[in-house]
């Protein structure tokens, strides 16, 4: 399955189809949007720090009592290396729909005395004496929306044993005055260092028991906003050991942290990326505390003459980075194109940790029907998002939903499709069969109650299942986890469009009916 939007290298110096004859793309000021200098952050109080150390100590005591404790080699300085990125899936939206808001503060003084690993100021302290002790990885864009759909996993950066965990605490904090009760996981590595994963989503924390082995890359939970947190993010922190006074370890190598990098592949300080392209029925509304519900108004089906909103969301967007936008008709001819540069936004700083901009554009009254493309070139990559224009947009009831039962597929995406079943009581059951970018199989299932209409957007929560096997099948071993959602629009008894958005990215399918059940007719 493709990630959020298809990426292709930009080929310079060649004529690419209609681009050779296209008019020069002039700058176009955004109709709305904004940048953020300080996306979600947190505060670990001395009380919480002591509580985490106490929980770690209890885990160590349990391991000692069971005879499972292994002493770390104290003759060597605590060190970790080769760590994986602690959110996932990668490749996929765990990599693309995230950003970094803060690093470790290396200046022990406070307040307003900060120094990150590059000798910069991308960190913070507080008047209460807290120096930020980890890296904050936030969800972007529409962080609350992504959190509500369980989209981003928290994954173990290195192998070890589960030392402590906490779950069941409220996870919609958006204030530094929230109760200091994060959901968390603590993992002890072979060298004695301890990784702290904080602010996890309620109910998502691993079901493994204390003392069980944790593999690098293993899912520990999902990103949330529990405890003292201003929005959905993961606070990842490394300590030299489990004691309350254990030294903080910054795994990033730089001018003000002259140590070997702890990462298998350290990311750039400014990791500029176009996180997401999307289309909307109206300008999105991002949650602002105390509200914690995004209203993204995501929409991928329009009529000729409709006004559509085209949005681009970035992380680490800097002045001078020019984005070339294009909207293509189904035959790939250009409707319009324009450029965007942060330097053209009034009062913008040199860089935003997170930003989004949108343009409201009316589709022509004679717009051809079919699959359109919104695409952008940014920093050597091309992102694409598809949407549909359809003249048959009047919402009409489906007389008998059972007539929709059957197999649906996308001729342009061989090997991927879905089975649709309608059960008694107007229960829709959907099975999706496809592939991840790695080539591995991707099987999803979802249900929705309620009778459908043609040309109505139907949202179906989708789950992935693990633990099954062909022989010696054990139903108790099946684990279902929230994957994302299917947005299905039925255009007729034989045609539909579907957008899958979840842990493996985003993909749009234009479905045709492959087969139907004899004797059933949705007309």
How would you explain this protein's 3D organization?
Helix content is 6%, strand content 37%. It has three domains: 46-249, Glucose Permease (Domain IIA), CATH 2.70.70; 271-389, Macroglobulin (MG2) domain (Immunoglobulin-like, Sandwich); 396-516, Lipocalin, CATH 2.40.128. Residues 2-23 have low confidence and may be disordered. It has helices spanning 46-66, 93-96, 143-148, and strands spanning 8-9, 32-36, 87-88, 98-102, 135-139, 153-155, 160-166, 184-188, 194-198, 213-214, 219-222, 233-239, 248-249, 273-280, 301-302, 307-318, 323-328, 334-340, 351-362, 370-378, 381-389, 396-397, 406-409, 417-423, 427-435, 441-449, 453-454, 457-466, 479-490, 495-502, 505-516. The protein has 523 residues and is mainly beta.
Task: Name some characteristics of this structure.
single chain; 523 residues; mainly beta; Glucose Permease (Domain IIA); Immunoglobulin-like; Lipocalin; 3 domains; 8-stranded antiparallel beta sheet; 8-stranded antiparallel β-barrel; 3 helices; 31 strands; 6% helix
CATH topology of the largest domain: Glucose Permease (Domain IIA)
- The helical percent reads under 10%
Strand count, sense and barrel status of the largest sheet are: 8 strands, antiparallel
Mean pLDDT: 87
Number of helices: 3
Globally, the shape reads globular
Q: What's the level 1 CATH class of the largest domain? A: Mainly Beta
Global Rg:
25 Å
Beta fraction: 35-45%
Total domains: 3
Distance between the termini: 32 Å
The CATH level-2 architecture of the largest domain is identified as Distorted Sandwich
Find the CATH superfamily of the largest domain.
Glucose Permease (Domain IIA)
How many E strands? 31
Low-confidence stretches: 2-23
* Backbone structural class: mainly beta
């Amino acid at each position: 399955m493709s990630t959020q939007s298809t990426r292709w290298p930009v080929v310079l110096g060649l004529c690419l189809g209609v681009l050779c004859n296209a008019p020069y793309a002039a700058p176009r000021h955004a109709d709305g949007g904004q940048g953020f200098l300080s996306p979600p952050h947190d505060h670990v109080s001395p009380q919480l720090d002591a509580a985490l150390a106490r929980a770690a100590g209890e885990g160590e005591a349990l391991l000692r009592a069971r005879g499972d404790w292994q002493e770390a080699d104290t003759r060597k300085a605590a060190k970790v290396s080769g760590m994986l990125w602690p959110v996932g899936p990668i490749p996929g939206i765990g990599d693309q729909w995230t950003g970094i808001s803060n690093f470790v503060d290396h200046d022990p003084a406070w307040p307003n005395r900060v120094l990150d690993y590059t000798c910069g100021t991308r960190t913070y302290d507080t008047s209460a004496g807290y120096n930020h002790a980890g890296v904050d990885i936030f969800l972007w864009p529409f962080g609350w929306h992504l959190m509500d759909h369980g989209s981003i996993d928290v994954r173990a950066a290195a192998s070890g044993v589960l030392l402590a965990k906490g779950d069941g605490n409220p996870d919609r904090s958006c204030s530094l005055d929230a109760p200091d009760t994060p959901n968390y996981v603590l993992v002890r590595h072979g060298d004695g260092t301890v990784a702290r994963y904080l602010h996890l989503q309620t109910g998502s924390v691993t079901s493994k028991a204390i003392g069980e082995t944790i593999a690098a890359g293993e899912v520990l939970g999902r990103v949330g906003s529990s405890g003292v947190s201003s929005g959905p993010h993961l606070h990842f922190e490394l300590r030299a050991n489990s004691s309350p006074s254990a030294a903080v370890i910054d795994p990033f190598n730089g001018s003000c942290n002259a140590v070997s990098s702890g990462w298998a592949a350290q990311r750039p300080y400014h990791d500029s990326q176009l996180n997401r392209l999307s289309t909307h029925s109206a300008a999105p509304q991002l949650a602002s505390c105390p509200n914690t519900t995004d209203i993204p108004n995501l929409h991928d089906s329009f009529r000729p003459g409709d006004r559509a909103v085209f949005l681009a969301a970035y992380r680490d967007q800097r002045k001078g980075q020019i984005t070339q936008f294009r909207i293509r008709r189904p035959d790939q001819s250009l409707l319009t194109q324009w450029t965007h540069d942060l330097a053209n936004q009034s009062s913008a700083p040199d860089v935003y940790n997170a930003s989004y901009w949108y343009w409201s554009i009316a589709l022509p009254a004679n717009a051809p029907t079919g699959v359109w493309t919104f695409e952008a070139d940014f920093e050597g990559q091309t992102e694409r998002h598809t949407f549909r224009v359809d003249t048959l947009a009047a919402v009409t009831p489906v007389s008998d939903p059972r007539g929709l039962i059957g197999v649906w597929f996308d001729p342009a995406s061989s090997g991927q499709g879905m089975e649709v079943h309608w059960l008694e009581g107007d229960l829709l059951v959907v099975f999706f069969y496809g592939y991840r970018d790695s080539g591995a199989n991707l099987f999803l299932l979802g249900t929705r109650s309620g009778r459908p209409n043609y040309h109505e957007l139907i949202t179906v929560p989708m789950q992935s299942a693990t633990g099954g096997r062909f022989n010696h099948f054990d139903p108790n071993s099946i684990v279902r986890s929230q994957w994302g959602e299917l947005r299905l629009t039925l255009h007729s008894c034989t045609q539909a469009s579907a957008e899958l958005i979840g842990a493996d990215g985003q993909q749009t399918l234009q479905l045709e009916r492959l087969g139907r059940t004899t004797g059933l007719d949705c007309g």
